[in-house]
Description:
The chain is rod-shaped. The protein has 155 residues and is of the alpha+beta class. A hairpin with a 5-residue loop joins strand 2 and strand 3. The chain has helices spanning 7-56, 77-87, 110-122; strands at residues 61-71, 91-96, 102-109, 129-141, 149-151. The protein has three helices and five strands. Residues 63-153 form the Acylphosphatase-like domain.
Amino acid sequence: MSTVKNPLAKIQNNVVFDDIISSLNLNYKSILMNSLLIITTVTSCLRLSSFSAATTVPMALRSVDFEVFGRVQGVFFRKYTKDQAEKLALKGWCRNTSKGTVEGQMQGPSDKVETMMNWLKTTGSPSSQIDKANFKNDKEISEYTFSNFDIRRDN
Length: 155
């Protein structure tokens, strides 16, 4: 059994030991608090970035001119075209031409414009007979230039 020759040394050693433990406890608490702060900050940044990405990504809009050939006048083609465009939330116009065709312009999200292009090539009004549909001036736009889809007076 060992005996301490100097009782004061034991007390001093305990005080030093207690100081070390206190310092470690403070460092441990500090590390935990900093870790929590970092986790909270990273989580907030991720939420903000996903929120801002969802709200700032502009929707790609597309504008396309069209002309449809065949039996497309006197068969309610323009009315059905307007109805279909409104179902797809497209904006623009259509009208009869002196050549016996129907021409127009449509604007909207690219996938909806693509759907309408297919409809103009293949479907039309029930009594129509589509020979072909031509599309030109296909371009991306930053904003609409029309507020709705209209039927215009004949050209």
